[in-house]
User: Fold these one by one.
Assistant:
Number 1:
Amino acid sequence: MQIRQENPGDYKAVFALLEHAFRNEVHSDHKEQFLVEDLRKSAQFIPELSLVAELENKIVGYILLTKIKIKNTENEYTSLALAPVAVHPDYQNQGIGAELIRHAHQKAKELNFDSIILLGHQDYYPKFGYKPAKSIPLDRAPIN
């Protein structure tokens, strides 16, 4: 398997992958493919953090991290949001999603980002270092 930066020639395949991967997901509005299209056009899009997983010249996985601002009454922090991560149903449970997450974390560190937030399955993401936001002071949420 190869993980690489997405390029415009991948957009159609990624759209189809997202549509298929989230089709039967209960906790989804089934519009992730449109979210990605919108995020690619935004100022928050970072091309180096839009990644595909290829197996036998076929895109089987995708992950996107985009820039966000977290503000409270005293401070503003730049962070990243992870959404979405998807693996084609025929290739799930083979570690592809995990490799995409690890690769995205490494790329984010290389680009000097310190944290990533997400909304996701509470039993899946802790193995990658994610914790409930309420349990971490904002200035102490490093990328693992």
Number 2:
Amino acid sequence: MEHQSNQPSAVTFSRTFDAPRELVFQMWTAPEHFASWWGPQGFSLQVAKMEVQPGGTFLGSQSSPDGNHVMWGKFVYQEVAAPAKLVFVQSFSDEHGHTIRAPFSANWPLEIRNEITLEEKEGKTTMTLQGGPINASAEEQAAYDGMAPMLQQGLDGTFDQLAAYLDSQK
């Protein structure tokens, strides 16, 4: 399916968790919680820095299950409105936080803007993530569009981990 649009595409993903909004927000903002669920299934996350405030930075490394592959990434927080909203720009980086190209694609966008909103109803929280490239070239946008189905699948696995971790916190 070809993407025919003048508007850059974005991935939108929603999931409802059986947990209060404040707790789900903490999962995104407390290093000890975030490290327990974020990333591809089977990978481990080491948090080097996590300053959840506008202009603050998250820096962390993910290790593959066999330990042979390590990828660094960063978030630069744009908006933090506890416990309802979190906006950040996500990039691959080196261990010093310098933005680099993704290890899997020379055309992957350097920056992805993610907006997380949390709405609570009757003790359950619906999280909506909307993300898409910013400042992307046509080639970068095309790479993102082509990977969108795999990205959705990866997010599904990541948020399965969040659901299991939230259950373990009860």
Number 3:
Amino acid sequence: MIEFEHVTKVYETQNDENVALEDVNLQIDDGEFVFVLGHSGAGKSTFLKLILLEEKCTEGTVIINGQDLTRLKRRKIPYMRRQMGVVFQDFRLIPTMTAYENVAFAMRVTNIPTRQIKKRVPYVLGLVGLGDKMDRLPDELSGGEQQRVALARALAHSPKLIIADEPTGNIDPEMSFEMMELLSAINSVGITVVVVTHEHELVHRFNKRVVTIDHGHIVSDTAHPEVAEAYQAAGGVLPEEFDYAH
């Protein structure tokens, strides 16, 4: 589903170079649920941008669902993105549109037929527990409910992959737990889920694979303890609060 092969990303500035990711190797299989954990500035945002085709790697190869993104033609990028559903920290809902209209709009801009939209939108809003609030505007919904609308929108195109970028950053702890449970339920039907977060306390509550990024390197991976061992053998030091290797 997702493969990073010796991926390095360097941002060129006027006076310097910023190495955001360095020689990253990672594989996430179909149907997995993976937390990508790290401090602010660790490289999580760049990791996401490479998957979402917002940036291209400086070296290496990024493969999503069998497609080499480094070779993907520009005209095919929108079609590739439709295979992914993205939930952003700030929700990115259109304030003048109802919950129904926000989800429908995401489908309409990709030329989905109206008949299909009318059938799909109530279904995905029902999945996230908002079947009775389809006519509410974002400011009439709680933060947790707005996040659910964002999740419903991400599910609108029946994606194979859901990516959640700091999905609990703007909601309270109880709602955060409920959001993770929803994502777990989505994963249980075979959809790959990748949650990018810095909230290690929340990660502790779910028995899922955890990949930790620090200073542009993958420093531990609970599915592959040898990653942390190799990192430490090379002189790297694991941040204590993010050490899920053992």
